[in-house]
Amino acid sequence: MAVIVPSLRHERRLWNDGLTRVVGVDEVGVAPTCGAVVAAAVIMRPGCHRIPGVRDSKTLSAAQRERLDPLIRRRAVAIGVGAASVREIDQLNIYHATHLAMRRAIARVGGHDHVLVDGNRIAGFEQQVGPYTNVVDGDARVYTIACASVVAKVVRDRMMSRLAARYPGYRWER
Q1: Sign, Cα dihedral of 164, 166, 167, 169
Q2: Are 41 and 24 in contact (CB under 8 A)?
Q3: 159 and 165 in contact (C-beta within 8 Å)?
Q4: Rounded to a whole number, what is the distance in angstroms from the first to the last CA of the chain?
Q5: d(CA 47, CA 16)
Q6: How far apart are CA 132 and CA 92, in angstroms?
Q7: Which regions of 61-131 does DSSP assign to beta strands (E)?
């Protein structure tokens, strides 16, 4: 199976329209039935060059993600991370908790002009975060979303490792 390399096509279109603070956002932790859901939001400099190896975090090994995370953090204009706790997931459901984590991450990057989000349209999202574009398989196809995917996965993996140390036997570190 060929690996999809994310492009800057979506970002370039927005940068060419004068939008400089374009946020890519993605979440991790939706499929597992344990732990918080974590989202990351990343803004890259207009006209930036891709970091070789950045792609959907699900296609990378833990070692690859750990190597890429600091490179992404150094090159990013801004990074925000947000989470929704297990309690919030139970209260809101995973769908709404995921969007809460995304909104928290976006809020932590400071001002922004446009959001690129992985997945389907989200009801009411524009009223909460402003203009956005959803891209199905965005974590594989859109560079800033792929960057967010890597950051979010590294943060969540570290959270799960800490939980595993406190509660051995569940293999949460894996």
Answers
A1: positive
A2: yes
A3: no
A4: 24
A5: 10
A6: 23
A7: 76-84, 114-118
- What does the DSSP assignment read for 16-33? HTT---EEEEEEE-SSSS
Q: Are 56 and 139 in contact (CB under 8 A)?
A: yes
Looking at residue 32, its pLDDT comes to 65
Tokens, residue 138: 């965005």
Tell the burial category of 78 from Cβ atoms under 10 Å away from its Cβ (0-12, 13-18, 19+): middle
pLDDT digits (tens, 9 = 90+) for 41-86: 999 999 999 999 999 999 999 999 999 999 999 999 999 999 999 8
Q: Per-residue b/e over 114-127, b at no fewer than 16 CB within 10 Å?
A: bbbbbbeebeebee
